[in-house]
Amino acid sequence: MNGILIVDKPKDFTSHDIINVLRGILKTRKLGHTGTLDPDATGVLVVGVNRGTKIMKYLNNDEKIYKARICIGIATDTLDKTGKVIDKAIVSELNKVDEVIKSFSGTYTQTPPMYSAIKYKGKRLYEYARQGIVIEDIPCRDIEIFDIKRISDIIYEEGLAYFDYYVHSSKGLYVRTLSYDIGKLLGYPAHNYDLRRLKAGKFGIEESYTLEEIQNGNYKLITLNEALGDLETVVVNDEFSNHIKNGMAISLKHFKKHKLTKIINKDNTLLAIYDKHPTEGKMIAVNVYPKEVE
To answer: Measured between alpha carbons, how far is residue 290 from residues 20, 42, 247, 271 in Å?
Structure first.
């Protein structure tokens, strides 16, 4: 049992909770995940099973797609509905909502929230936050937003406003912060009320499984070769396979493009991942899978 499992994470579970549950179901401790989701969020969680954990670093730089619901009129210390209310305003009517949302397209400079796992001077930001310490100089990061749009009507209820929006971004986006920033540009305190990840890289919600389905055996692992489908591919014969399994350097002439490349055999079994040597004219192994991993 080696590969990638796409889980539809339910609410009230941390990403690590999901790993613990799966260890019991799949009877293995060799599990890992990419792209942490907050406990209140749902949707695509990419999990490596056994040797699938060996390729997780190649799946962690992918684009993400989310569906979010924003609440305008209340801000919280965690930037989502689980936090303590720190600001409030009555919302009667919002103006130029779509124009404001669209303004976040392109390069968006974002400050990660205090309640996050980002490290600052050796400690997670949430550790400072739980002690009541506010870090004023959290390093900003540039996020690329490829598409963002409102996908529901605006609902006004008890002095607050709600609407859903879709966002497709590069890795590293905190949707909680984005919702807060949208509200700020609209002139109101705001927080993220609901969040669902629809896609992480090539893996979509339509190929995910609930914990119940996995418990009942109704799931299928994605092979390592399939999971790395976006990488350049070189197919080698049995004789050359031994060369690859020993991690020996290979001449550039065997590669169409001199960049990160997966090497498979005729049975589509992943053998190794190679990359161009920074100074020498050859490709070298960055990961080798000496045993069959599919």
So the answer is: 28, 36, 9, 7
Kindly report the average pLDDT of the chain as a whole number. Answer: 89
Distance between CA atoms of residues 160 and 174, nearest Å: 22
For the purposes of burial, counting CB atoms within 10 Å of the CB of 294, is it exposed (0-12), middle (13-18) or buried (19 or more)? Answer: middle
Q: pTM of the full predicted structure?
A: 0.87
> What pLDDT, in 10s, does the model give residues 35-84?
889 889 999 999 999 989 988 888 877 799 999 999 999 999 999 999 99
Q: What's the rounded Cα separation, in Å, for the pair 257 and 99?
A: 42
Kindly report the CATH class assigned to 67-192. alpha beta
The Cα 177–Cα 154 span in angstroms is: 20
Helix (H) or strand (E) holding 90: none
pLDDT tens profile 36-50 = 898 899 999 999 999
Which are the catalytic amino acids? 38
> In DSSP terms, which residues pair with 277 in a beta bridge?
none
CA pseudo-torsion sign 225, 227, 229, 231: negative
Check if 3-62+201-223 and 231-288 are the same fold.
no
Give the pair of three-digit tokens for residue 231: 């990488």
